[in-house]
Specification:
The mean pLDDT is 84. The chain has 10 helices and no strands. It has helices at 7-19, 28-34, 37-55, 58-70, 77-91, 98-114, 124-135, 146-152, 159-182, 184-188. The chain is globular, with a radius of gyration of 21 Å. The chain folds into 2 domains: 1-35, no CATH class; 36-188, no CATH class. It is mostly helical. The protein is 69% helix and 0% strand. This is DASS family sodium-coupled anion symporter.
Amino acid sequence: KLHSIDTTSVTLAGLAIMLLPGIGVMSWKEVEKRVQWGTLLMFGIGISLGSTLLDTQAASWMANYVVKGFGLDGLPSLAIFAILAAFLIIIHLGFASATALTAALLPILISLLSSLPPELGVNPVGMTILLAFSVSFGFILPINAPQNMVCMGTDTFTPRQFTRVGLYLTVIGYLLLLLFAATWWKILGLM
């Protein structure tokens, strides 16, 4: 560790220096035009939400509520994985970014998997890593990922066609996740 100043302060100081008159790296008008403020705010809010959920113990409270309420503490690890992966795929329909979804829900998933009884044999770290795959399944709606919106911008297909193909891809991907979870990932000790 070189110094006791946190990364955020160093980054903001560097940005302020770049914007000073006479330095000439960038003017504020250029920053206003070139920076995607919506994306920046979304990442900041998502990361803040995740940190707050962990710091206030809200993630643990929600995890205990979900485990007890849905009876996850009595299911085998593959069933828990299948339910949580399906939940993440469905909830992704309401998020325009996998990063925001991950930042918001990852702390809850970690707490949830850590609160499961040890006799179930669930590897919380391994299953969290594997569940992160299902977060990237933003294939169904054009608004589920920036790349989807770029594809829709080409006007080569309709939103209905996009959704139909996306549903097929999502189902195939989900089934492949379950297949790997039941076989290869179990052998590797991730499940």
